[in-house]
Design brief:
Elements: E1 5-11, E2 16-22, E3 27-35, E4 43-47, E5 56-59, H1 65-78, E6 88-95, E7 106-107, H2 110-118, H3 127-140, E8 146-150, H4 160-163, H5 169-174, H6 184-197, E9 206-212, E10 216-222, E11 225-229, H7 251-258, H8 264-273, H9 276-281, H10 286-294, H11 298-322, E12 327-331, H12 332-337, H13 339-346, H14 358-362, E13 369-370, E14 379-382, H15 387-402
Parallel strand pairs: 1-6, 6-8, 9-12, 12-14
Antiparallel strand pairs: 1-2, 2-3, 3-4, 4-5, 7-8, 9-10, 10-11, 13-14
Helix pairs in contact: 1-3, 10-11, 11-13
Length: 403
């Protein structure tokens, strides 16, 4: 296969993130972001990484995703990296929800598009935008393989005991209610990278992956396969997040409706957009929260303590699920950069073999690294995630195999 480039597209409701990679050496040739699509103030920021040049910006308006992707194509063409290049092997698309049907990357055809569309009720904010990006890219390059890589796919290896909710089976199946999990491309990448950091194959290690960003999720990965994860039917369940509540008693919803007089839409907005860290203290930026904690702010301290308590509970739970743990890996914006979070998350877990070295934990860097003391029974690692590379890798492997 002579073509070795993969364009990765992550299409949101009003944005498109993209990266162009050369899979011969996984190098990045260009990256960028189109934001505020459909608004008069829309903007494109393009960075030609291969040329070593600075970023370029264009103002919109970009009326829709078609206009946005055509602008991206123009920027790439200006660097000699256009979508018409014979070196472009495929376009890989991030798709948030693949349900039970999609367990691996999939070449897009009409049947695949229809199934992604059928999943919109369980991913109403994400799948419509993902579909728009795919259809626009297909119109621009109808001859090129378009590959969907699903956030949920990595978690489809969970046993039924982990994926099932304890509700009436017929009702659950009729409405596709089960644990799907999200951030799958990140959990897949980080679990493999952690094994590599330990000098072992993924099939030889058990890893607890903690993806801590504004959205946050944990996973228990047993010998390269996910056996449990914290997010569920939607990305709302699990850890405390920037604006999402994570785990709550379901009866809270009934209580707020019956006693608080809140509508379903109001409760949905509360739990997804006005809860988590921002609900507890008014901030969802961990840097600002830590600054406030250091200044003695009690609300910020409460938010931090609730966040850590939930995180520690999941570490302990997944330790029990796995039985034996080789490593705990922190990743994403908070996980990679917030040393106080990492320290607090494993504090008091010495009996489980978990600890961090103060000096190693304080070091910042872009490479995977261990922060546990030498000789620790369980490795504690910081592993920067790379979801775009994971999507490109899966896309290229599928296209090579298909060809």
């Amino acid at each position: 296969m002579s073509a070795t480039r993969v364009l990765v597209l992550n299409s949101g409701s009003s944005s498109v993130k993209y990266q162009l990679l050369d899979m011969r050496d996984s190098s990045r040739l260009a990256s960028g972001l189109v934001e505020r699509i459909g608004e008069r103030t829309s903007r494109l920021k393009h960075t030609p990484l291969a040329a070593g040049g600075g970023s370029r910006e264009r103002s919109g308006p970009f009326a829709d995703h078609d206009a946005a992707l055509k602008a991206v194509a123009q920027e790439l063409a200006g660097d000699g990296l256009g979508l018409d290049s014979p070196e472009l092997a495929a376009i890989g698309h991030r798709v948030v929800h693949g349900g039970r049907h999609f367990t691996r990357p999939t070449v897009v055809d009409d049947a695949v598009l229809a199934e992604i569309e059928r999943l919109i009720p369980v991913a109403p904010l994400h799948n419509p935008a993902n579909l728009t990006g795919i259809r626009t890219a297909m119109a621009l390059r109808p001859d090129l393989p378009q590959v969907a890589v699903f956030d949920t796919a990595f978690h489809t290896t969970m046993p039924e005991s982990a994926a099932r909710y304890a509700i009436d089976v017929e009702t659950a199946d009729a409405h596709r209610v089960r644990r799907y999990g999200f951030h799958g491309t990140s959990h897949a990448y980080v679990s493999r990278a952690t094994a590599k950091l330990l000098g072992r194959s993924p099939e030889e290690v058990n890893v607890i992956v903690l993806h801590l960003g504004n959205g946050a999720s944990a996973s228990a990965v047993e010998r390269g396969r996910c056996v449990d994860t914290s997010m569920g039917l939607t990305p709302l369940e699990g850890l405390v997040m920037g604006t999402r509540s994570g785990d709550v008693d379901p009866a809270v919803i009934f209580h707020l409706a019956r006693v608080g007089g809140m509508s379903i839409d109001e409760i949905d907005a509360l739990l997804n957009k006005k809860s988590g860290l921002v609900g507890l203290c008014g901030d969802n930026d961990m840097r600002e929260i830590r600054r406030r904690v250091d200044e003695g702010d009690e609300r910020a301290k409460l938010a931090f303590d609730v966040y850590i308590h939930r995180l520690k509970k999941y570490i302990g739970a997944y330790y029990a699920v796995l039985g034996h743990v080789d490593a705990v890996a922190f990743t994403a914006g908070v996980g990679e950069n917030a040393a106080p979070v990492r320290k607090a998350a494993v504090a008091g877990l010495d009996s489980l073999g978990l600890a961090v070295d103060e000096e190693l934990n304080a070091v910042r860097g872009d490479d995977p690294r261990l922060i546990s003391p030498a000789g620790a029974r369980v490795a504690v690692a910081v592993v920067p995630t790379d979801e775009e590379l994971e999507i490109a890798t899966q896309t290229y492997a599928l296209v090579k195999k298909t060809n």
